UniProtKB/TrEMBL annotation:
Glycosyl transferase family domain location: 214-375
Alphabetical keyword list: Transferase
InterPro entries: Glyco_trans_1 (IPR001296), Glyco_trans_4-like_N (IPR028098), Glycosyltransferase_grp1 (IPR050194)
Domain Glycosyltransferase subfamily 4-like N-terminal: from-to ranges: 18-210
Name this polypeptide is given: Glycosyltransferase involved in cell wall bisynthesis
Keyword Cell cycle: no
One GO MF term attached to the UniProt entry: glycosyltransferase activity
Species of origin: Sulfitobacter brevis
PANTHER family for the chain: SULFOQUINOVOSYL TRANSFERASE SQD2, TEICHURONIC ACID BIOSYNTHESIS GLYCOSYLTRANSFERASE TUAC-RELATED
Keyword Transferase part of the UniProt annotation: yes
SUPFAM superfamilies: UDP-Glycosyltransferase/glycogen phosphorylase
Superkingdom assignment: Bacteria
């Protein structure tokens, strides 16, 4: 197949799962064209992200004149179809939090994408996230009758399902993808029951070849790593509080960056944890792997999630997980077998889990890490999941 991927901002350091999915489809013989509305505002440090950026066509970078010509040519070729799509964009804008004007811009983007899709012979459009990328995909479908689908990750889409018109997007899509059974259940809340059968579960995937035999657990004081954007939903502040409560020797490495970094740094300083916490900023995949190899567990203290890729990668690296009991995480992490699950936002429970990690003998951590690795490799092989996605597209 020839597939058009529609994305808002791509590539981004926190979205390597999209890159892996695209490359798995390409490895299976499909051609994938990448359309992003804009490039990432964050500095790209991973060579694979830089390579993806070079392959991506940025819609807004085409400029207003090009988008205006796309609108005019679409209107000239099918005035009635364009008018119906305009009405749809107007209705979506009325229900949204960003307004009608923004949706008129989405319509212009859809005109451009639809024209490029026809010119390239694309047979299916697929968007990631139920936000503006899915809006552009739906409008492009209405303009050219090209089938589309989109993957919903959460948690952002579940925060504003009505404002994003998720039910409308699901209804018009050939199918909709959830990344966990929990995610599918949330989509069913906002979709008409007649559309439930077209809501599929396709997991985000890892590349097993990138995870050979796990590195031995390091000796000495316990070390944990947390990876993610420094934003409120990731719960790093709760993790800092938990670390302050943990009495046993323990070192935390925080990988990532974001708007809450000054607040996190200030809290580390106020709790006198500077010698026990390392902040790395964003790093490439090789450094992430090295940090996982040097850790005894991954900690994911999030308040809201979809199903984090970093959890999958840490499990594939043979490391236990300390995570919160939210969203799709319990479908992957088994409490007491491959890690510890705690209530979200409960710093006391998180501190207790850290204490359990410190007190557990290395033999127990190795057993938990092996169980984690076995489970994630069985459930999240990117080649298998990409083949599922392609089968849905054919269908």
């Amino acid at each position: 197949m020839k597939i058009g991927y529609i994305l808002n901002t791509y590539p981004q350091p926190s979205q390597s799962f999209i890159r892996r999915e695209i490359r798995a489809l390409e490895a299976q013989g499909h051609e994938v064209l990448r359309f992003a509305m804009r490039p990432s505002a964050e500095k790209l440090v991973d060579a694979q992200d830089l390579s993806e950026a070079a392959k991506t066509e940025y819609v807004l970078s085409e400029g207003g004149a090009t988008l205006a010509r796309s609108v005019w040519e679409t209107l000239r070729q099918d005035a009635s179809g364009w008018a119906e799509t305009l009405q749809a964009a107007w209705r979506l804008g009325a229900a949204s939090e960003v307004g009608r004007l923004r949706h008129l811009i989405y319509l212009a983007e859809a005109c451009f994408v639809a024209q490029r899709a026809r010119a390239e012979g694309i047979t299916h459009l697929h968007a990631h996230f139920g936000t503006n990328a899915a809006t552009v995909a739906m409008l492009a479908h209405m303009l050219g009758d090209l089938p589309y689908s989109f993957t919903v990750h959460g948690p952002e889409e579940f925060d504003s399902p009505r404002a994003l018109s998720l039910g409308t997007k699901i209804h018009h899509a050939a199918f909709t993808v959830a990344i966990s059974q929990f995610g599918r259940s949330q989509l069913c809340r906002w979709a008409a029951p007649v559309d439930w059968a077209r809501i599929k579960v396709v997991h985000c995937g890892i590349e097993p070849a990138r995870f050979p035999a796990p590195a031995p657990f390091p000796k000495g004081p316990r070390r944990v790593v947390a990876i993610g954007r420094f934003v409120e939903q990731k719960g790093q502040l709760a993790l800092i509080e938990a670390l302050a409560q943990a009495t046993a020797p323990l070192h935390l490495t925080l990988i990532g960056d974001g708007e809450m970094r000054p607040m996190i740094e200030a809290r580390i300083k106020s709790l006198r944890l500077a010698e026990r916490v390392t902040l790395t900023g964003w790093v490439d995949e090789a450094r992430v792997k090295a940090e996982l190899d040097n850790a005894h567990a991954l900690v994911m203290p999030s308040f809201a999630e979809g199903l984090p890729m970093v959890v999958m990668e840490a499990m594939a690296a043979g490391r236990p997980i300390i995570s919160t009991l939210i969203a799709g995480t319990p479908e992957l992490v088994q409490d007491g077998t491959s890690g510890w699950l705690v209530p979200a936002g409960d710093a006391d429970a998180l501190a207790q889990a850290l204490e359990k990690l410190v007190k557990a003998p290395l033999a127990k951590l190795e057993k938990m890490g092996a169980a984690a690795r076995e489970r994630v490799l069985a459930r999240h092989d990117v080649a298998i999941e990409a083949a599922k996605l392609a089968d849905h597209m054919r269908g």
